[in-house]
Amino acid sequence: MAHPDSFKSRRTLNVEGREYVYFDLKAAEANGLTGASRLPYSLKVILENLLRNEDDRTVKADDIRAMARWLDDRGTAGHEIAYRPARVLMQDFTGVPAVVDLAAMRDATQNLGADPDKINPLVPVDLVIDHSVMVDYFAQPDAAQKNVDVEYDRNGERYTFLRWGSGAFRNFRVVPPGTGICHQVNLEYLAQTVWTKEENGETVAYPDTLVGTDSHTTMVNGLAVLGWGVGGIEAEAAMLGQPVSMLIPEVIGFRVDGRLPEGTTATDLVLTVTQMLRKKGVVGKFVEFYGPGLANLTLEDQATIANMAPEYGATCGFFPIDKDTLGYLDATGRDKHRIALVEAYAKAQGMFYEAGAAEPVFTDTLELDLSTVVPSLAGPKRPQDRVALTDASAKFREALIELQGGRKKSELPDSVGDSRFMDEGAVPPHKTPETVRHNVQGATHGIADGDVVIAAITSCTNTSNPNVLVAAGLVARKAHALGLKVKPWVKTSLAPGSQVVTEYLEKAGLQGDLDAMGFNLVGYGCTTCIGNSGPLPEAISEAINENDLVAVSVLSGNRNFEGRVNPDVRANYLASPPLVVAYAIAGSMFVDITRDALGQDQNGNDVFLRDIWPSTQEISDIVRKTVTRDLFETRYSDVFKGDRHWQQITVTEGQTYDWDDRSTYVQNPPYFEGMTMTPKPVTDIHNARILSLFLDSITTDHISPAGSIKKNGPAGDYLVSHQVRPVDFNSYGARRGNHEVMMRGTFANIRIKNQMVPGIEGGITKHFPSGEQLPIYDAAMRYQNEDVPTVVFAGKEYGTGSSRDWAAKGTVLLGVRAVIAQSFERIHRSNLVGMGVVPFVFQEGTSWQSLGLKGDETVTIEGLADVKPRQTVNVRITRANGEVLDVPLLCRIDTLDELEYFRAGGILPYVLRQLAA
């Protein structure tokens, strides 16, 4: 179909003698989109996306006009649009099920008599294996190698599958383990700021945009690349050329003035920004940074701020293209012509930010003077709970009573200055006779409340920023020169986001100093920030648990939620890399490191933080000398090759995957069983049983399997029956490629409450008519064997929280045909439709409680074959005593595209038939 080009915006751009087709925002403004040049830069990216993808079906002229109307409604109108990102980024936990679905689609295509090679991603997909390395070994020269060996041992089945996928699919690349974190690899190598593709013999240029299966995809917003995290189903839809449904957002402008004071870091800045924006309330909104202070932030500082958009609650944290963008692209080894294209394109489109330019229109604004930022941490439980470093020790004392679960106050350490202490290596001040240090088996030191047991330089937030990593190296160098040591109870680790970091730390001679302080390389990946901190030494773990101690972690990550970092650690603080080193030396949160000595030098003199803290000048001198273009060119020259482990993985080279029935990690899902080229007619729901009755705010974390797998339960039973020992269960995350495990974990969260079994927590229900109490999975399977459909009832805000593909996939595999709720979270609703499950909404004032449902009723819904978007349909509920209720429900299949997905049996069968045809 010809492009309608309703606003006559198609133009050509000549850059260094090469012609590019582009969709000109200035021309569109002249042709009816009045005021488009005043839009925030992030919305200009969205507007271009709509202009380029106008097809009079998914993108209509009125959708494009709604972007100009934004200047009047400022995003409050809630207009829904179809957005098509340029590419998709995945990490291995979330990427495996997407590749499993692609492989299953190839099998199904072959079964339909078509060519399986037709099934490939339709937009470029990069999968970076970064979520599986754990810190089992640390503080030793060969820690990284040993951790990688264990990683391959644990994840061999998954890696064999991904290695096959990397060769089998076009438009799909895999960055092997041991390379870096997906967000840092994206920032340093994959992202281009302006993307291009060949189309009908022409080269089209447009903004680089993406969706990613990790919430911190936003990090690349620092490079003026619009992108954010989505669930697996949206990512798969985008990968297969389907639009991502979104509302035109409100955009909060964040004005930056001034310059950071001496002694502060980008980490201190982002913790301040996170606290401010959380207080403001920006959930579901874009945040865009502007103002004269941008000139005083490096691009890596901007990426640090953008990274934590999920922590401040925004969809994205966008920085426009400016001269620093061009400088960073050059410094990281990007193609010189591409950099020229980025500059020419941004200037032609009014997307290039320069000091003194007219400020865009925003929904609302807030402002920060950088000179007011102070050294900070965030904790002990949430990233927005910033504490000034000067107050950290005192605030920890206040938090300790709650963290102890109400232990009596007299057990707390007393005020500063008591020099009595019990053992060699213990923290001298703050200890009183009431607070003993508890014995650690086989050690000369004890352990107490407040001791830092994990100090980790980890996670994409900070390891992409050379300034803070060089600062950590300099703190280590100065501490080492003075003879300071890390306390013996601290587990130290350094997990950079890319191999470039190791290169420049070694080039500066700083890696040796970090090694001397126990911060040896442990691997390249997310490690501690996602809970892959590995076990604490057994004796330390036993002492913590036997004495019910509040142990502490200090990490340079972005997440510190309770129970996330390590099961033995109750208090977790986010901090800059140099502060991580300082706390490893101090060894306790009771040390006020702004006033107390960290330790003593060789001559017994006190050493304070100020004695080992580097100046901004020292840091920038080393960064200028060591972080050079050639490092990036060398390290990324063969980024997809992998190490000897990756090279040694043997896979069958075929268009379809040779599934192993014995695998407990990767299995062929049943979405396409019995599929024909023509969809079977939609059938009505007759005499369905109720699988569960839920109250308000059931989140995707309640529905979707996550975390550790319990020994006693359907998933644990399945693994044991396949000769997997409980110690080798691994996590639901690692087993996302096996639907047998995942469907058994759906609705199995230990905190979920099904009102059919009042007073019981966990995934339990009643089977009818037997009345027997069973795990939800077991009841669902019994209903399937009896050929009885099921439905789920819920309250308000069903499916809130992060988008999780298995919340919808698990639901359909359990045999649920419909979910009937008072309201839905927007993305989970669309995910249900994408898997062929119908969402229905009660009319205002009606709920399953008001109808007096108990769970023993049957449910009939007719007219589904002819249902229209947002149509009111009748549901017939028959009580156990034979009484019949007729209840009107709103069908929340919202668009014609969604209706087609539903009639096809879901988005995957819909796309498969299109590609196979």
Short account of what is shown:
This protein is an alpha/beta fold.
What does this structure look like?
- The chain starts with 9 loop residues before the first strand and ends with a helix.
- Helix 30 crosses helix 31.
- It has 31 helices and 34 strands.
- The relative contact order is 0.10.
- The chain is of the alpha/beta class and 917 residues long.
- It has a seven-stranded mixed barrel. The chain has a five-stranded parallel β-sheet with strand order 6-5-4-9-10, sandwiched between helices. Strands 14-13-12-15 form a four-stranded parallel β-sheet, sandwiched between helices.
- The protein has five domains: 74 residues, no CATH class; 286 residues, Aconitase, domain 3; 259 residues, 2-Layer Sandwich (Aconitase, domain 3), CATH 3.30.499; 158 residues, Aconitase, domain 4 (Alpha-Beta Barrel), CATH 3.20.19.10; 41 residues, no CATH class.
- Strand 18 and strand 19 form a beta hairpin.
Write the layout of secondary structure elements.
Layout: E1 10-15, E2 18-23, H1 25-30, H2 41-52, H3 61-73, E3 80-83, E4 87-91, H4 92-111, E5 125-128, H5 143-168, E6 172-175, H6 182-190, E7 194-199, E8 202-207, E9 209-212, E10 226-229, H7 232-239, E11 244-247, E12 251-257, H8 266-280, E13 286-290, H9 299-307, H10 309-312, E14 316-318, H11 323-331, H12 336-348, E15 364-369, E16 376-378, E17 386-388, H13 392-403, E18 438-439, E19 446-447, E20 452-457, H14 460-463, H15 466-481, E21 491-494, H16 499-507, H17 510-516, H18 538-546, E22 551-555, E23 569-574, H19 577-586, E24 599-600, E25 606-607, H20 609-612, H21 616-626, H22 629-635, H23 644-648, E26 685-693, H24 700-703, H25 714-721, H26 739-745, E27 764-767, E28 772-775, H27 776-785, E29 790-793, H28 805-813, E30 816-821, H29 826-834, E31 838-842, E32 858-861, E33 872-878, E34 884-891, H30 896-904, H31 907-916
Parallel strand pairs: 4-5, 4-9, 5-6, 9-10, 12-13, 12-15, 13-14, 20-21, 20-22, 22-23, 26-29, 29-30, 30-31
Antiparallel strand pairs: 1-2, 3-11, 7-8, 16-17, 18-19, 24-25, 26-32, 27-28, 31-34, 32-33, 33-34
